[in-house]
Amino acid sequence: MKNTVQNKNVTWNLVGVTLNASYSLFLLIFITRINGINAAGDFSYAFYITSVLSAIGMYGGRIFQVTDISKRYSSDHYISSRLLTSLVMFIVTFLFCLISLYSVYTFLLFLVMIAYRAVEAVCEMYFGIMQINDNLAAVGKSMSLKTVLTFVLFILIDLLTKNIVLASLSLVFSFIIIYFFYDRKIASKYTKIVFNFTHHTFVLLKESFSPFIFALLGLIMLNIVRYFIEYRGNSTIQGYFSIINMPAATIALLSQFLFQPLLNNLVKLHQVNKMKFFSIVKLLLIALTLMGILLAIISYFIGAPILGFVYHVDISSYRFELSLIVLSGIFSGAVGVISNILILMRQMRIQILMYTLSIALGILISYLYVRDLSSSLYTSFIIMLGEFIIFLLVFYFIVRKSVKDSKK
Q: Which spans are transmembrane here (predicted)?
């Protein structure tokens, strides 16, 4: 019976995370073909910059909730805190758009995207309840339903209106519909949820600050090059950059989601057998690196023709850059895995320093080299490689110290 439940969890989680990791890819394909490369650039910029701002709404994410072994905080506290952080996210986004002097069109696109991110942030806490109760299958089903419904509605609205702002409302509607008719229903089987803003809610926000800040820094790191393209380039370059970078973004997101099913077991293993725990993490990182090398080689030969056919654009002169970008997606995914492991080990402050150093280097390199599409792609690879090296080295020394301490 236990194996059957575990198999369902793995299968549905895999389906859900695959769809969730790839739906932005399919939306970008559709927009590029129907609305053009400039619209694709506008959509991808708003989508990924609001993903940075979504760190405010997520505020530490599901992992802090799932690894709360001592049950210091109830589900009410986690969900209530997300309502507060989502409100703050709206305010910050509004101010960001005003300061950036965006057009009305871009401003509206940002507001729609951030509304979607707010609903997503609340849903993540319901996913946490499901995962704690060993029901990742429900999480996978929810992700699948949201993705399919989003894609169908987006296509219908965009075909009728040729307006990506209106079409993007499908993200908001789909997540709200599945939230009310599925997520709440499943989560209510395990706990009665009451929105309760108490002292504990604010204490939780204080304790979650460290994972929030390095999640924010991590997302800033991923999008530094996009900032410089926006202000030095144009929507066309942004569109092409998003197309070539899409496989890397998908790989990085997929590696993060595939890590989730291991989390519960790793939490328990870290408590009882640190040596075995670190051995599994080591194998995971090696497997990710080898997979990245293999995918980079494959993408060099067939990546550009496939993307060119799918998106109906010519990127044949960027074959080598594409293979580097695919490899950088694995670097980014590995950094996410290391970061989550360090959260599990409650190594918070060191990550802030690691991300700050990575961002400082990323801004410097982007300032010096981002000019056109090719330089933007090379810069993105160098930044991700540098971040991976920093995290890997620091993680190595932390593991060495932890192993030595456990032997005393």
A: 12-31, 43-61, 82-102, 163-182, 203-225, 237-259, 280-302, 322-345, 352-370, 376-399
